[in-house]
Amino acid sequence: MNKTVTLQNGIEMPLLGLGIYAPGTLDEVSNAVAYALAAGYRMIDTASIYKNEEEVGKGILKSGIDRKEIFITSKVYNDEQGYEETFKAFDRSLNRLQTDYLDLYLIHWPVREHREATWKALEKLYTEGRVRAIGVSNYYEPHLEELQTYAEIMPMVNQFEFNPFLFLPDLLTYCKNLGIQPEGYAPLVRGKAEDNEVLNAVAQRCGKSTYQVLIRWSMQHGVVTIPKSVKKDRIEQNFDVWDFEISEEDMHLLNSFETQIRVAEDPMSYL
């Protein structure tokens, strides 16, 4: 399995990265970023609403790894959206991250009254070369259909909640047909599914943990995957997923769960 995917504009994006969604205690996030980069990760996913961009920036500096080797994603949150407001939010994120560009900038949620203006702002940031790729987050088919009516540049990435308990094959196909790279968050279902018998049986057959199987399942769907953790051992385990493959039969089993578990809001509430 390739460790990167190629976005529609030719940019290489790591297939597996570290997500961090909480501010954490003192130095917890900066240490987690440093642990991840030492373990081999080259992508860090954050957002302004997570209130940890400063710590992410510190962790990158602490790692000693050249900025150009690291793919950094951040997002403009709901109360920052709008055309001019997005530029200000982008600058604040850059300052907190101690960088002069982002690799990927996303609209965090499709806020109805702002999504067109916010997307136009992202297009401008992209054409000015301030960000290497732009995209959306939590956009389902209706949001993407609407976006096509005003976008001059299509999103390179769509990040949404994705795991066997929230399997969205139609959305995957829709994104891929538009040349949009799917990216999945909450691949570990925030620990809510570790007792599932089918998942545990697949993990035993693979000789891996349930968390490693969940990450690998997402990756085998061609989805960029960002498990979240601040613990050193878990961060390392989550990256140890390159030496096995889930069989076609077991992929089918994991694709077939009827129970849905959602850990974030339903994007359809933003129509």
UniProtKB/TrEMBL annotation:
Output the SUPFAM superfamilies linked to this UniProt entry: NAD(P)-linked oxidoreductase
Species per Swiss-Prot/TrEMBL record: Arundinibacter roseus
- Domain NADP-dependent oxidoreductase stretches: 19-257
Q: Name one Pfam family in it.
A: Aldo_ket_red
Keywords per UniProt:
NADP, Oxidoreductase
Entry-linked PANTHER family? 2,5-DIKETO-D-GLUCONIC ACID REDUCTASE, NADP-DEPENDENT OXIDOREDUCTASE DOMAIN-CONTAINING PROTEIN
Active-site residues annotated for this sequence: 50
| Single GO MF annotation | oxidoreductase activity, acting on the CH-OH group of donors, NAD or NADP as acceptor
Its recorded name reads Aldo/keto reductase
Residues flagged as site, Lowers pKa of active site Tyr: 75
Query: Does the record bear tRNA processing in its keywords?
Result: no
Similarity field: Belongs to the aldo/keto reductase family.
InterPro entries in alphabetical order? AKR (IPR020471), Aldo/ket_reductase_CS (IPR018170), NAD(P)_OxRdtase_dom_sf (IPR036812), NADP_OxRdtase_dom (IPR023210)
Instruction: Quote the record's binding site residues for substrate.
Output: 108
Q: Which Gene3D superfamilies match?
A: NADP-dependent oxidoreductase domain
